[in-house]
Specification:
The protein is α+β, with helices and mostly antiparallel strands and 58 residues long. A two-stranded antiparallel ribbon has the order 1-2. α1 crosses α2. The longest helix has 27 residues.
Amino acid sequence: MRVVGGMSGGAVIGWDMSAALQLGAAVGLSPLIIAELLPPIEAVMVRKTNEEIEHHHG
């Protein structure tokens, strides 16, 4: 994950896409499929993770 931090806490801003692409390739996924599926999955993951961070630091 890529994260940022500051005086008021931190937030997730995304995945390390190089690592995600390598993981997909390691399990035999086509790079085209990975490129199509990762961005929407990443967006949901980032939003939900940041909601959880905010909830616990609320």
